[in-house]
Specification:
The protein is of the alpha/beta class. The chain contains 10 helices and 14 strands. It has one domain: Alpha-Beta Barrel (TIM Barrel).
Length: 347
């Protein structure tokens, strides 16, 4: 295997285009208690057998290698739905015990649908979790049920409140905009977010679910989102402190029924941010993905269970990142959607 510059000697996950991965997304399970249409079929998927999923000890070992040997500075726990992992608090606490190559504690966040978060937010905060991203595509119960195939919106509201109460802030709300499904409710969603003090992030619909659910016709692009929001809210561009952050931000002026704040749009399709991407992904079954849209993976579970030492695993991980392509290629004529759905990859 080609040995890249991005080895344990440099303590970086560098690719051929000069990008360095410092943000690790760890999928803790492919299972989910919702069936969001842009993520998986309504009947669900065949979940990974337990023996194929990384154990807690294996997740912890790869977290340690990433942080202590390869320069990871941020860890986000994803799924599926990571709250379905009973040991989530233990994994968070382990992450909080690590120190980066610069001696700092890594940032720890969680992407969740918030079902059950009201019962665990305090314990997660005590374990060391910093903040949460909550996936919620509408504040209309009927629209939420239509997208998620579950009637659980009240539980999401309770989870968001619990996150605030536990200090897991800033609370960010992620919403995928789908034409003629929830796009007409984006202003209501922004108004709710501003009122409770959350930061709304509206995401362009990406081809990561069932193939028949995505087309450019049902994708709402960033410019259209901003025009629609601008009919009611006064928006001005905001400076983004982190150039690798996927969301471009706009300040929202206070209004008669809200205190103002900010809103972001993640324009992954129409205005891709691949040139600034700093993410590396670990799936629930121990595969490294160097891009959300990658059609190849690098297995760490197999070598780890066969006795590979930390240096070997670090080298495998580094080589995987070295091969990262310059962009996701959605607009390329030869683009092929990844075989895995979003819930199987991790957000």
């Amino acid at each position: 295997m080609f040995m890249s510059e991005a080895t344990a000697e440099t303590l970086q996950l560098r690719d051929q285009w000069g990008r360095v991965a410092r943000d690790l997304r760890i999928s803790l399970t492919d299972r989910c208690n919702l069936r969001c249409s842009y993520c998986m079929p309504p009947e669900g998927l065949d979940w990974l057998p337990t023996e194929q999923t990384l154990t807690d000890a294996e997740v912890m070992r790869l977290m340690r290698i990433g942080v202590e040997m390869l320069g990871i500075e941020e860890i986000r726990f994803t799924g599926g739905e990571p709250l379905l992992r009973r040991s989530l608090e233990d994994l968070v606490a382990f992450g909080a015990s690590l120190r980066t190559t610069s001696g700092a504690r890594p940032g720890l966040s969680l992407t969740t649908n918030a079902l059950g978060l009201d019962k665990r937010a305090a314990a997660l905060a005590e374990a060391g979790l910093d903040r949460v991203n909550v996936s919620m595509d509408s504040v209309d119960p009927d629209v939420y049920r239509h997208i998620s195939h579950r009637d659980r919106l009240a539980s999401v509201f309770a989870g968001i409140q619990a996150a605030f109460d536990a200090g897991l802030t800033p609370v960010k709300i992620n919403a995928v905009a789908i034409r003629d499904v929830n796009d007409a409710g984006l202003r209501d969603l922004l108004r709710y977010s501003l009122r409770v003090g959350a930061q709304l992030r509206i995401i362009e619909h990406m081809p990561l679910g069932p193939r028949e659910t995505w087309s450019r016709a049902n994708m709402v692009p960033q410019d259209e989102i901003l025009d629609y929001l601008g009919e009611e809210f006064e928006l001005t561009p905001a400076e983004t402190a982190d150039p690798s952050a996927p969301a471009k931000l706009w300040n929202v002026a206070p209004g008669a029924d809200h205190p103002g704040g900010s809103v972001g749009v993640i324009a992954s399709v129409t205005k891709p941010f691949c040139a600034d991407c700093d993410r590396t992904r670990l799936t629930a079954d121990g595969q490294i993905r160097n891009c959300l849209f990658s059609r190849t993976e690098t297995d760490l579970r197999g070598p780890m269970r066969s006795g590979a030492d930390d240096s070997k695993l670090a080298r495998l991980w580094a080589d995987a990142m070295w091969e990262k392509k310059p962009g996701h290629g959605i607009d390329d004529p030869g683009f092929i959607q990844p075989e895995r759905y979003m819930s199987e990859i991790g957000g």
